[in-house]
Structures
1.
Amino acid sequence: MFSKLDSVLQLVRQWQLSSPQDQGLYTPQWSGAECVVRVDNLSAHSISLGQIDLFDGQLPKGAKFHGEGFQMLAQNYGSADNITAIGRCPDAGEYRLSEDADHFTAYNQLLIESEGHYTLLGFSSSHRFSGYFKVYPSGRLVIGIDSDTLAIPARHYLVSESLFVACGESREAVLEQFAKAIEQHHPRLNWPSKPNGWCSWYHYYADVSAEDIEENLQQLISPHDHLDYLLIDDGYQEFMGDWLYPSDRFSGGVESLCKRIREQGKEPAIWVAPFIAQAESRLFQQHPDWFVKGQDGQPLAAEEVTYGGWRCTPWYVLDTTQEQVNQYLHQVFSHMYHHWGVKYFKLDAIYWGTLAKGYRADQNKTRIEAYRMGMEAINNACNGDAYILGCNAPMWPSLGLVHGMRIADDVERNIGRFKQIAKETFFRNWQDMRLWHNDPDCVTLNNIDNQQTNEAAYNWHRVSLLASSGLVFSGDRLIELDAAQAEVLNVLQKNQADAARFADFGLQHAKQYQDDLLIRQYWFNWDEHNSLEITLNVDAQWQVLWADSQFTSEFTANGLTICLAPNSAVVFEKKA
């Protein structure tokens, strides 16, 4: 059914919905494999349409698909009647972005596999709206945009985001076409190379101190001099929202610490959650009018309409349709950039900048536009010369606004989370170096008091990170790394290969290329209980780079037979 582009385009055109009676006119405008729909308000009064269904069709029987999420922690995979969440936080779960009583909602992209062919339906732009795909157990597929609370004035119109269609026998080729279409609408922010460094969060969490930063700075000078950035994560600030006011653990100030880092030949990096504030903050106390409002006209606590946040809640969300708010953001980031010397910003919790079900001062702006205005204010404050990493971000609304993007959950030292992060990352490997630099989160190789696992789990972690070719930031206390762990970190940091390419949704086997040459092959056993035996067609040029202690291999008449224990991974590297 989905095999040739012409037939797929013809089919999707047949899915176009008729205009609603007495309300509007829907006019599809196709250009090659892309379509926008003009929605005219023909009435004599303004109308708010909210979710606008534009296409209504049917998935092929037995089709499998991968659906993107609106925010970082959401992805899904399966069939129309059996859908599995890949991450911990589906959009329809704690985030409450959709009410999926009788259907499932994906956002941004739906990649469909049927009878060995792949069809991609994806929104190649996200300037004002988010695009959605509603999948029903029967296989019914509804495609549309969320126009938010936007009102279309009488005799006016809006234009949807661009829907892109592609198909082919190669999963990777179809995704590459999609990336090129996105590039036309949202050119990627370029950076000379992928940054690397050390991050304070995954050993110290919010209890980090200036002394902890100083200790790890000394380790970055030697022996880990190959790492460039020192990222001071959450915990340096007194309150969420008061980013220029340090906590008692940074009594000497953050500016002087950043100066010290630069003097030692390293680059300071800083964590900021720019769009949120807690009630105790100076920002909220002095400027409650700067925040998104609820129906009662008071600042809206995020937890009333979505996931409330992971600490120091309730969170309140800045209204970036207000000029004063964006001036404030410009002031904060300009100060950090010019006075602290920070040229790497990890922007966390930025999903909340798209807070739905609230009221902003400029009702002619959608929540996507509001978010993009805030992000542009931050970038402009740094003269466009600072590296911007998005984290806990709205995925497609961030296109063209970040250099790097966290694409997976927070790392924890256990096999369950390592596997979850690997799966989240592998489904998004295609985005690396096309939409942004992928960040699969930090490298953790050592146990801590409340997170302890085994050698096989850490092997899975290092193998999957190598396959991602993403940003490399150590999350361990550097002084505690032994020589073997330091060498793992070194190999990951020096990796210049493309992100590994998986042939299908099974994610069992991947190939990795560098300068168009195949240099590594990966095999993963996702089963929790059963070993996996495979006979490989590889010659003596290939050698094991990393495997766990349970891995076995034997040359037979048919080739090299390998055995992977449950929850096990191996990477083979071609000899130089």
2.
Amino acid sequence: MKDSKVLNYIEEVLENMPADWLRLTTHRLDIYNEQLAKTQFLEQFEALFAARNAETAALSALPTAFDYIRLGHPLSTVLEWAIASLHNLKPENVISFSSRTMPVLAVLRKNLLTHKNTRIVYTGELPDFFEAEVLAHVYGYKFELKRVEKLEELTAFDGSTVFFSQEAEVGQATLTPAIDFYVSVHADLGSVILVNGEQNNGYVSEIQHVRRRESIAMTPANCFAALQLLLKKPSVDQDNGDAGANKAQVRNLIKEITGTNTKPLVGSSGLSIQYAIMMGLVHDALENHTGKAIRFVVPPNCYGGTNDQARRIAAVLDNVEVVDLLVDGDNNMVQSIDTVLEKIASQDAVPYIIAEIPTNPRVEVPDLEKLREVLSKARKTATGEVAVDPVFILDQTFCPNVQFVSKDGILSTVRAVSYVSGSKFPSGGKATAGYCVANTKAEALLEKIEKHLTLCDNEATDLQMEILAEQLPSMNQRIEAAYRNTRAFVNFIKDTLPEAKINFVSEELAQEGFTPSVFSLDLPTKGNTAEEREAYKRALNDKLISMMIGEIPHESKYCVSYGQLKGSYWTIPATSTQGTTKEADKDYIARVSLSPDMDLELHKKVFSDFVEQI
């Protein structure tokens, strides 16, 4: 009886759901409580279920479940709730992934850290991309594989039992006490992991963290298809065009945009690509620099996901450490890299540098000629041997139009891999997919990067490829138009409130091709003490954003975003992306991102009104 009530309600929800549930990649932060996240959405969703209310208006009024669909979204939350309801589990014990292997890797990671045994049980055959040897050798994961004909064959095991089940149906799971984690795998959709038993509740946050950092939630389109299958409705074939043709077109477009001839790799998100890059480089170091320590050099105030992911890798691999790279404010990126590389060379370690250009949040571009010199410099170990040359891993999400790694690019003489979050300008906010390319000197690294992208099953979906094929051709024109709006708005702020400090690229850098459409705004403050001045500034930031959203609700969004097709995006603090940056490294200034399609004059008017009130 309960099952039919749940399924009937889900059917109504799918018929009446807001269009944004399928379409958006970012969600409003003004109706989002990060501490409550999915819980708040679910509490109110369950109240609607109890009242049998599936009206569009009621569903639209639900609070934001996650701030970004890579982490989760309304449809993934509804899918997980429905499956949990059918199996008498708590909703948080059901977690969907776009990847078919990452939920298994999440359990393996947790058990590695807690020194617990893992048994992976399966029927039939494991997919080809599940490379057990690589998981053991590169990731350090410890587990045993056991093939069974039926679940009844399972005997007691001292540790965790993961059942890897490849299924046509959605939501079907036989949960027995012998199974700790049931991973339901669906070839074209992704997977869902069911955490079984009170004793395993401690895994939930760890599995969520892996989805948050090293993979993505099952996409909205695939969750919709999965819910249709759960209702036993014929799955509406997603018309994603010719998948092969889209993939070929996207690769050619990326080559054209980046000026490269090496094979572009496209993942389900920027962090999915970054994880493949990092694990691919770890793999390469194990093969080509056996016994040497690995150092990932990362700015402590860069994008929170980059920081967190690097430290999470170091936490599980004894030979990997993270080294801080100071790049903003009084620190010079080039000098910092030179200092760090000298130290790593003296240790005879393998240096991998991750950096954003322009930097976040201060939007600074280093002297690129000097950067190339420092990266190219031959260094010696403490014993006088030739040190391993660095690989420069460039996050160029804020300037994907600049050809850093082209044949004649500024970084052509050093090993360099560049990557971009596709949820920004490449797709205009329509998909989370990200991509990476390498210059000729780093081309040999792509084989390992691709291997780990495939192993983690974090490649872009067919729909993501279709969206990139549609949007990439206009990307550079959109970048230019958004920059023009941003430059005009920055100039207006300077004239209207000259005391404000603005971090934005200079006109000279813009002429060299650095045309971002994001700037940080440090509003003037007052007070007798540092605490008073900081409190006043934060209150002023909130007032400005509230006015922008209140006066221009159809365009302004309290949201961490960039490179969207329409509107403007405001967030504070500028570096608090998904809450992972240490408090001391947060910059409590506003980060503002403008698009190519927005009412610039109305934004100017609201800012003028704000200035009159302070």
3.
Amino acid sequence: MPKNIERKNKINLDDKAKILVLMEHEENKKILQKILQGDYQILESKVNDFPEELFDLIVVDEEALIKHKRKFIELVKKEEIPKINLPVVLITNKTIKQLGEKVLSLIDEVIEVPSRKEYIRFTIEKLLKISGITLNLSEKIYRSLSQDTPIGVCILNDNKINYVNSTFLSILEKNKNDVLEKNILDIFVNEKIINFLEKSFDYHGKNDPNFKLQNLSKDRWIKATLSPVKFIDKELDLLIIMDISEHISARDSLTGLYNRKFIEEEMSRYNVKRQLPLSLIMADVNGLKMVNDTYGHEMGDKLLIRAAKLLEESCREEDLISRWGGDEFVVLLPGIDEKIVNKIYKRIKDNFREATLGVKDLPISIALGFAVKKTMDKDTQALLAEAEDKMYDNKRVESKSAKSNILQALLSALGAKSHETEDHVRRLKELAIKLGEKVGLSVSDLDRLSLLANLHDIGKTKIPAEILKKAGKLEESEWELIKKHPETGAYIASSSEDFSHLSEEIRSHHERWDGDGYPNGLEGEEIPYLARILSIVDAYDVMTAGRPYKDPLSKEEALKEIRDCAGSQFDPNLAEKFVEMISD
């Protein structure tokens, strides 16, 4: 069959459908032509010589199949017969057992002759109608898969199977007698599919989920869609299933992009002279560890999914985009030179720069590097290594600012869910710097103290807002969760080169001078000096500013609390200096 023969996008029954007739029995051929002539376009051919035209249905007789059985099967194995529900009708006037199961599995309907011409017309019209409906309803999901994905079709009347095509039977490894007039819910043993079908009878066509079929000769993944159709004045249901096993095996389960194994195979396949120039982009999402540590791995997964979507939106349809592993992606761009790949590189950067992650408004940033293979002297591993080196160069430049942007988003989110307002942080920094200057801190330590005032409660970002803003007494379990925030904050800070030097101060800002603090029960000078300063100024600001559930204290009342707690909660020397500073 010529390679340029393709299936139509849809069948328009208002136009004359084209029927390919492959028949050796001359009398039967004349009968069929007489019945169909005028309403359909008849294309005559031999099995080994298809016409170079589009067609909508094949009519074949058993003589043609017996004579060319091997060629017919070979054509199907090469997938040269269109896969999208192209119906095949067998006209026969004798037993068909001698055709064999391989051939019979390709047949959608068998018409024994002599038969009434109305029945022959009805059968052909039914198959064309089903084919057209299938194409229209499956267009969206079909486009998202490879162009040879088989489509199985099943017509249901009150859950009972009225019609199935050969692909449906092939996917489920069933014979027609196993399924016709049976309840569809009895055909599938997968509980998830049964639940989907039961719900979909009420909510038609809302989704097209993937299911794993087991208990077959091999496990298969299918995509399913159920939609209502009006056919021959009846309200029926159309179930479409598609075997996407090969599609799934080549895909990353999280992002839906190609996986590493697939892209490595494609790199080898494209490593030929006629595909030059061959370009490759390597990408790495900035700040994934910080997002995982702060919001958890579910948010980290959302970040990777969003990054994958942005890459798809930025690249061309023919580019091969894969998740290489972890936070890394590889884009293979065959047949384009440095000028074009540079445009795509810039488009990726621009799209990421404008993007945020959902309701958290987390900024998304990506490091990129690309390389171009112009001659066969450079192998694909060298191409990959060059792109990776450039990507890490870019990451060193951008990673700090990316993490800083994520941190700022975290602090903004904390302010929205707790009492850590910008005013509180501003006052805290002013008081901390003033006390630091009074006790003679160096400029670098003053800078660290200012940053500590910003970051000290960042661990609270993982605590639910209802606990942080709770007006009444905390439950024991809630208090235990609160007490974890210094360690969580230290862990978050340690994930960034810019803030890791403050991780111990963040961990220790709720320790007490007498050793009764948390999380580690440090005592006296075991507590980092900057953490001791922060604990005093933080307590004073909370007391004087108040909380929704607690009235503020006067300056004098707050200073009395500081004096009373010197030597127990606070470093006595620092407490004395602070009281002097505020009293002046």
